[in-house]
Amino acid sequence: MELLSRTPPGWARLAALRFDEVLVDHAHCEKKAAANALSMLAAFPDVPGLPRAMARLAREEAGHLAQVLHLLERRGLRLGRDPGDPYAQALQTQVRQPRAERLLDRLLVAALIELRSQERLALLAEHLVEPDLRDFYVRLATAEAGHGELFWKLAVKVSPEEAPHRGAQLATAEARLVERLPLRAAIH
Amino acid sequence: MELLSRTPPGWARLAALRFDEVLVDHAHCEKKAAANALSMLAAFPDVPGLPRAMARLAREEAGHLAQVLHLLERRGLRLGRDPGDPYAQALQTQVRQPRAERLLDRLLVAALIELRSQERLALLAEHLVEPDLRDFYVRLATAEAGHGELFWKLAVKVSPEEAPHRGAQLATAEARLVERLPLRAAIH
Asked: Do A45 and B73 touch (CB under 8 A)?
């Protein structure tokens, strides 16, 4: 699975300029990634291989969250309430409700969010000036690589016939969404 | 903080006898522990030190969850839906609703659940016959030690005056609950 668009060039400049806001949003993203993995496991415990893959993912994302929170503290920032993420919320409205369709769509939406996040963490790393921050984001972007693939492989496993077609539909919707949404000092 | 009662001796015999059921329930407990840590972080992001402590805890519990799920798979067991835990549900009804009280009570209830879980994992380890399983539960009980203390210390930090009194009230309620609930082939 691949993203069908690239992030507009203005995003990375904005994100590097207003990095503290992005960092707070990034913590919320890691928290939601860990919570989503646990929620997938709770909702689909009988899909072979899914619970363990999600448990490992939750562990990894919670570890990233702890690292981002450490950086927040060092910069004297507070986490605050999660104001919500219009990008992820809009994608989630694409998830169909019957159980089999919901499982496939949740896996595909998660794959797309992971791919977009990884693209943006890598872009952010390129645009950060402080060497420590840059190294931190290079490490995180590397660690996140493979998460999109994990969700995509699970999607193909649970629905080998429908996954390519539905994946292309959702990837198209995702690319349009990125084009439509205003740039924010946030990961998405 | 200490538990005010010991688990009845019949529990460990039942748990060792119907270990497969306990193992499935244990996976659900680890999942709820990880999800609860993330939920605490989302609900109380402005309590100093709480978000990072909860992120680390979520990472650790998700790691235990992955290990328990691995053991489930090796025994040919399926996770299945979480049928819910009458013990934890009954304790949660004790949580008062105004924000400050809710924070204190959620910390104290989490401390008690962690202490009881640790007691039972250690008891289970003593009663298991297979050396691999016994070692696994000794390791997990050791890893869980300190989680009760973590929640208790946060409780004292956020509410130094009320924590001892309210902690004693809730510990009394917890001990009565353990006495009242029928023994189950489950962690609680």
From this structure: no
